[in-house]
Every structure is written in C-alpha cells, then in structure tokens.
Amino acid sequence: MNVSEYDGLTGLKNRKSLQKCFDEYSEANSRFGLILIDVDGLIYFNDFYGHVEGDEKLKQIADLLCQNVPNGVDVFRSAGDEFTILLKDLNIAEVVALVMQICKAVNQTFAHMPPLRRFYGMRDRSRLEVHYPLTVSCGVAFYPEDGTTYEDLYRAIDEILFRAGKPLLGGVVALVRNSESE
Fold it and tell me: Do strands 135-143 and 127-132 pair parallel, antiparallel, or not at all (unpaired)?
C-alpha cells in the first residue's frame, strides 16, 4: 500500500490514485462511467458546526459511498468536498440508478439535521438565502463520449450540475448526456 495514494482523513484512494486508475482505464480503450459526488454547502456546514464536525460528516459520507457501490469498485476522495467513482461494465441506466441510490442514501442519512443557511448569488448581484439539510449532488459522464481526459469529464459534470440547479437546490442528480439516444 502506497500511503501517498490514500486520503489521510477518509482512508479512500486520493486524486493521485484516481488519475492513475483513469489513465489505466482510458489506455485500455474501455468505455467507463465517471461519477462525481459533491457535498453541497460544506462551507456553510463548517461555519455552523465547525471543521471537526465537517470532517466527521466527510468520513460518514465516504463510508456510505463505499457501502453503496458494487464490490470491487473504488471510491476516491478527489477534492476537499468531492468524491469520484469510476465504473466499468455498467450501462448508462445502471450507473444512473447507482447514482440515485447513493444520493438518496446520503441525503436521507443527514435529513434529520437542522437546515443550513446557504446563499445563492444572482446575476444582478442580489443574494437569495435558502435553507436545506446537508446533501450531496451527483453528476455522471462517460469516457470517451463525453470527454477523453479527467479534466474534460470533470468540467462537463461541473457544468451540468450548475445548470441543473446544484448551487440553489442541492441534492441534484445530473447526467452530462445520454449519448446512446442521440
């Protein structure tokens, strides 16, 4: 076990390990799905409950993700409040069903918590205050249809989550595109 490839907080494989795995999958010319899971409003959670409690929630979310993926599938902590899963041998419907299951499991786990105050900036520079519990939003993209690098797929997912209302709503599940129906 190479310690430099693991996240110290969650014990999951880290971004370095993710890039290695992504490169292996893409070099094999495999079609695979990439799921990005973003913890909605963790900054507000940390402001209200503190970073120690925020770290505990990240560990709980990591555990929930691992419990909800098929055996043999790695979950990565790819950034401070982001997790990534790479999936081979599943079709689009299976990946989306898994994402919905993950989102639901995490969101239900934290539904009992008091709603957090979050602020959404509007184009005219006004701000809207919204209240909702700790949630995750999940985006899905596929290699090679939606991008051929991790960065391409990440950007595509980030854009679709933003358009789906993640900053305002949280708990969003979004698919970059369904290339089989195009």
Answer: unpaired
